[in-house]
Every structure is written in structure tokens, then in C-alpha cells.
Amino acid sequence: MDTYAQQVTSIGASQIDDQLVRITYDLLEELPGQIFTVYLFSSANNYELPLLYVNGDVGEGILPGKNKSIDWDISQELVAFDGDLTFEVRALLTFSPLKVSYPTEGSIRRGTPQSITWLGSNSSEYVDVELFRDDRKVSTIVRTQNDGEYLWNIPIDTKPGQGYTVKISSTSSTQFDQGGYFSINRKIPLFVKFIPLAVAVPVVILLTESGGSSGPRVLPAPPDTPD
Predict the structure, then answer these.
(1) Looking at the domain covering 4-95, what would its CATH class be?
(2) pTM of this structure
(3) Engineering a disulfide at 111: which of 27, 128, 156, 184 sits with its beta carbon 3.0 to 4.6 angstroms away?
(4) What per-residue confidence (pLDDT) applies to 121?
(5) Does the pLDDT at position 160 exceed 50?
């Protein structure tokens, strides 16, 4: 999480008096429980450094919500300024709980590649991706960088059935999330595997004539066809 989040919307500014400007904004969340560090920037210094003389919903530990506000003390920040000012509110995501986003339902087939996706925690951390069935651990799929996705080649010997879940756990904290239940199916369904093949079986039929003969007559074989 080393980039600014794009969840800041509805930014507005109004001058309260000769000293204060109030900036309002909405801070949205992807997941419940996320925490942000909020900075206020201005065109007064070409948005190069965050403004210092601020208070309100700014700094560390800011929770998402609507109608957030920051008061900026112009008199302490600017010695002299003439002209219009514009502002930017930037929110850095500093904490996010883990959340498995796929697979959480439905079915997948063994012997095929499958993307496991999740949200949250810190991208500089590592996570353990584990497979459970009926709340019992089946295997550790991988330990990987927390980049939110892993392409899982489902082993062909994985037992088919229901009750599977994926669990994502941080290796550096107690954070984890276990997704919803899904099923793992055979790569080729049984009803396809065991369809019997049709086999041609030669049959010799004896034709008989009625009347004038006391028994069946075998018809002569057709003459050979030329090569």
C-alpha cells in the first residue's frame, strides 16, 4: 500500500474567516475496517508538500465516512498570497483487513488453473494461502507476496466434493480470512468418462424359401468385386 488511494470524492472548500479555510470531502472504503492517513495539498506550493497547519479529519488513523472536514490556518501557512487556491485531499491506505474474494461459491475443476483473489492487508507482506475442507486443513497452497492474486494449478489428485474453502493468512500479523464454501469437480465428469462405445458386430443371416424344399437354403455369397 505505497500509493494514494482513489477513494476521496466530493471535495469542497469554503473560507470561514480571515484565517481559516474549511475543506470537506468524502472518504470511501473497499472493505469495512480500513484505516487511512489523510493529507491536504494546495496549489499554493504546487501540491509539492502537504499543508502543515491543519486539524480535523487529517493525519493518521482516519476512518472512512462522508462529510469529513479539514480546517486550514492560512495566517500561519502563508505569509502573503494573492490569487485563487485549489486543494487536493489524498488518502493513503495504511490498514485493511484481509478478505477472500474468489473462490467463495460455485464449483471449480481439478487439473485446471484457477485464480485465487483477495483484498486487504499490506502489499509488502507475505500471506499463506491454504485449502480447507469441512473446516479441516487439506494443504498449504502457497506462501506468496500479498498482491491480491495467485494462479493455482489445482492438483489432479484433489478429492472431488463439496465443503472446500480458501483461507488467506498474514505471515506478519494475526490477520486472516476464510472464504465461503465451494466444490471441486473432476476435470472430466464420470458420465462422460464411462459412456460405452458402440461396436459393430458382424451377423450371418440364413434366408429360406418356402415350398418345394424341405430345408433352409443358404444363399450363395456375392461374387468378388474386382480390385
Answers:
(1) mainly beta
(2) 0.65
(3) 156
(4) 75
(5) yes
